[in-house]
Write a structure and sequence with these properties.
By secondary structure, the protein is an alpha/beta fold. The chain contains eight helices and eight strands; from the N terminus they run βαβαβαβαββαβαβαα. Strands 1-8-7-6-5-4-3-2 form an eight-stranded parallel beta sheet. β3, α3 and β4 form a beta-alpha-beta unit. It is globular. Bound molecules: D-xylitol-5-phosphate and zinc ion. The site of D-xylitol-5-phosphate has 21 residues, from β2, β8 and α7.
Length: 232
């Protein structure tokens, strides 16, 4: 991608953090230069894993986290939890179109509450779900792994899909963020940025890379991400 004016945001996924000390982990990763906290919500129904819910999102806000919280809902049904995450202080709320019977309504629920709304596309889910809602999304999230677990490998076919999503966003003229989630590492983030992404979720790559000198910091890996992005 040649648009060098695009701003890049790094969104560590706390799925790979130490849950026993989550508040401190979030503080540490933000102090290390992260922009957004990616919050993976799994229900053991839509995806085969069970993680965290709105109470923990609210607890992070009460702990003092003021950075944007990006709630990625891998749940079915979605509408009830959308309400709960609005109340819990989420900034972005994204959901999978297959998991909502009324996609337009779910997007509207999020927007009406003043939160930013997004749709998430699994590797085999077509972007055509966007056809009639480009004016109702603030974020498009492409999954580059099948959802449910951290630590999987990036699916290369997602690069073409990113280019297509970027074309759609540019054609719309709207300030929609293009987020990528799954298998993002220091050695592929530049290529992912060139394909059009501007918001990068990274779970295992960040939380497995504590600074050796200071175990409360993750700034070396975040700096490496930014160095790669500066060259993208
Ligand atoms: C997977 C989650 C991801 C996951 C990414 O379903 O949506 O956010 O935490 O983890 P890594 O970066 O390890 O692939
Ligand atoms: Zn996610």
């Amino acid at each position: 991608m040649t648009d060098t004016t695009r701003d890049f945001l790094i969104a560590p996924s706390i799925l790979s953090a130490d849950f026993a000390r989550l508040g401190a982990e979030v503080d540490d990763v933000l102090a290390s230069g992260a922009d957004i906290i990616h919050f993976d919500v799994m229900d053991n129904h839509y995806v085969p894993n069970l993680t965290i819910g709105p109470m923990l999102c609210e607890a992070l806000r009460k702990h003092g986290v003021s950075a944007p919280i990006d709630a990625h809902l891998m749940v079915r049904p979605v509408d009830r939890l959308i309400g709960d995450f609005i109340d819990a202080g989420a900034s972005y709320i994204t959901f999978h179109p297959e998991a909502s019977d009324h996609i337009d309504r779910s997007l509207q629920l999020i927007r009406d509450a003043g939160c930013r709304a997004g749709l998430v596309f699994n590797p085999a889910t077509p972007l055509s779900y966007l056809d009639y809602v480009m004016d109702k999304v603030d974020m498009i999230l492409l999954m580059s792994v099948n959802p449910g677990f951290g630590g999987q490998s990036f699916i290369p076919g997602t690069l073409d899909k990113l280019r297509e999503a970027r074309r759609r966003i540019d054609a719309s003229g709207r300030p929609i963020r293009l987020e990528i989630d799954g298998g993002v590492k220091v050695d592929n983030i530049a290529e992912i940025a060139r394909a059009g992404a501007d918001t990068f979720v990274a779970g295992s790559a960040v939380f497995k890379a504590r600074n050796e000198a200071d175990p409360h910091r993750y700034d070396s890996v975040i700096r490496e991400f930014r160095d790669q992005l500066a060259r993208a």
